[in-house]
Amino acid sequence: MKYMQKLLLLILVLGIQSATIAQVKLPALVGDNMVLQQNAKVNLWGWAAPNEKISIQLSWQNVPVETTASPEGNWKVAVNTPQGSEKKQTIAIEAFNTIVLKNILIGEVWVCSGQSNMFFPVGKQEGTWKTGVKNYEEEVKNANFPNIRIFTVLTKSSPKPLDDVTGNWQECSPKSVDTFSAVAYFFGRDLYQKLNVPIGLISTSWGGTKAEAWTSQSVLEGNPDFLSILETDAKNEKLHQEKLEKYYADLKKERLANNNDLSKSEVKKPKKEDNKTSYVLYNAMLYPLINYTMKGVIWYQGESNAEQAKLYQTLFPAMVKNWRSDWKQGDFPFYYVQITPHKGQNAAIREAQLLSLKTIPNSGMVVTTDVGNATNIHPIDKQTVGHRLALIARAKTYNENKLVYSGPIYNHLKIKNNRVQLFFDYADSGFKKTTENLKEFEIAGEDKVFYPADAKIDGKTILVFSTKVKHPVAVRFAWRPIPEPNLFNTENLPASPFRTDDWE
Asked: Is residue 422 helix, strand or coil?
């Protein structure tokens, strides 16, 4: 009798375990309220029992999609999506159990990433650096766009690649947008109002982070130029461990001296900033997203790499190449923001971002010299930044052919006697200035000494000169931490800072 009871109990336990293992599961990104990329093959994926058969019924097609989980219990299938519309769709995923996903839209999906200026939310959070955008009360109040869907990836780091993130899709509303990325929201709002299709925005960002944190370990280890970054990480880890060792030694002494009275403890445990180490955010906040089919990426980062601007010239393009390789969607659009002037930055980091336009295919850059704040590294005019990112997407991705999406970008020069003539891209309609005289131009001769220069608009070029430089060879524009340039094209887009020399 006891034997039969044990046998029945064992069968029951095994049955429960089998049922638990067989539960088909989905990642956070594949859920209610999501937006799927229109006119594309999009991935659906998840986990199930080993070799379990899975049937997927899509509301926009009659025939179900069949797939089978791998021996390890993983599954992924690509399905075709129709033209984007406001029609709500459903997806039923059936295996041992059934999951029905509701309120799905088909439209345009963008990943939005970077550090604090991308993380910066629309609304205000008292007592923090998250002060809210310009006119934040009105912006939050008016954020009723149920066909814009937003997903914020919870900040997390990991030494190894993860297979999922924490977060959920939400309809854009005053409640949900309050804590959502402002740059991402204004970018998505502009696209929605111009394209008239649903927009999906995935915000994955963390303040104070460097580009190497968003780059894979294999890419960093595979390039000799980046090994110094990993060496610094190792030194910082060693230093943290030494501080931790001292902390426990001091804590032991204190406990003994105070007869183990915890209320008298004054020893502070050293903190470790989890987001500062290389590849940990790529592992936790980027790698889990790469199955999700999207249109492109917007990026706002660089402040934390300013001290190594020269290295950023190769690191940033390597990161983008890394993402594109993993996503397996070719050279998808990658549009980024040149960081705003601030007292703690240098001109070289903006140059690194400018030069990246030539080394990153299918890229675009927003200039922000007119919307910065010398004393606030988080300027509150995120509307302009989002709008300018949307201009690039509308022109380059959505083919508004006549739309000018960039301010003047220096191309080349000609020297005429004691004057330098500068030629620019994105200035076909000419220039404009916001004050009487052009500012922020400097000129130098072969002695490499720069002097403030006079500059004037000459048709579609700029003439630069100074009585102190008889034989000029180089010009710099807005080449300092907090420039205040006033040169725009007639479309009111500012010229990027630049220099014509490559002197140390």
From this structure: strand
**Could you give the dihedral angle defined by the CA atoms of residues 125, 128, 133 and 135, in that order, rounded to the nearest 10 degrees?**
60
C-alpha 352/C-alpha 399 separation (Å) is 27
11, pLDDT greater than 90: no
Q: Which two tokens stand for residue 484?
A: 């205040």
CA distance 360 to 335: 10
Strand partners of residue 487: 433
Instruction: State the pLDDT at residue 15.
Output: 45
Cβ-based neighbours of 39, under 8 Å, separated by 6 or more: 81, 82, 83, 84
Q: Are strands 199-205 and 409-416 parallel, antiparallel or unpaired?
A: unpaired
Closest CA to 346 of 317, 299, 379, 312: 312
> What pLDDT does residue 21 have?
52
* Cα–Cα dist 228/16, whole Å: 52
Question: What CA–CA distance (Å, rounded) separates 152 from 504?
Answer: 41
DSSP state of 271: P
pLDDT band at 265 (very low <50, low <70, confident <90, very high): confident
**Using one digit for the tens of pLDDT, what is the confidence trace for 150-169?**
999 999 999 999 999 999 99
pTM of the model: 0.93
- pLDDT tens sequence across 21-70: 558 999 999 999 999 999 999 999 999 999 999 999 999 999 999 999 99
In sequence order, the β-bridge partners of residue 297 are: 111, 334
Query: Is residue 134 within 8 Å of 200, Cβ to Cβ?
Result: no
Contact between residue 478 and residue 455 where contact means Cβ atoms under 8 Å apart: no
What are the backbone dihedrals phi and psi of residue 169, each rounded to the nearest 5 degrees, phi first? -75, 140
Which residue in 363, 304, 324, 318 sits closest to 119, CA to CA? 304
The token duo for 150 is 């937003």
In eight-state DSSP terms, residue 197 is S
Residue showing tokens 């997927």: 56
Using a 10 angstrom Cβ sphere, with 0-12 exposed, 13-18 middle and 19 or more buried, the burial of residue 91 is: buried
Q: Is 386 exposed, middle or buried (0-12, 13-18, 19+ CB in 10 A)?
A: buried
Reduced to 3 states (helix: H, G, I; strand: E, B; else coil), residue 299 is strand
Whole-number Å distance between alpha carbons of 355 and 269: 43
Looking at residue 226, what DSSP letter applies? G
Nearest residue to 179 (alpha-carbon basis) of 122, 126, 115, 114: 122
Among 365, 353, 345, 281, smallest CA distance to 317 is for: 353
- 182: burial class by Cβ within 10 Å (0-12, 13-18, 19+)? buried
**How many whole angstroms separate alpha carbon 475 and alpha carbon 464?**
8
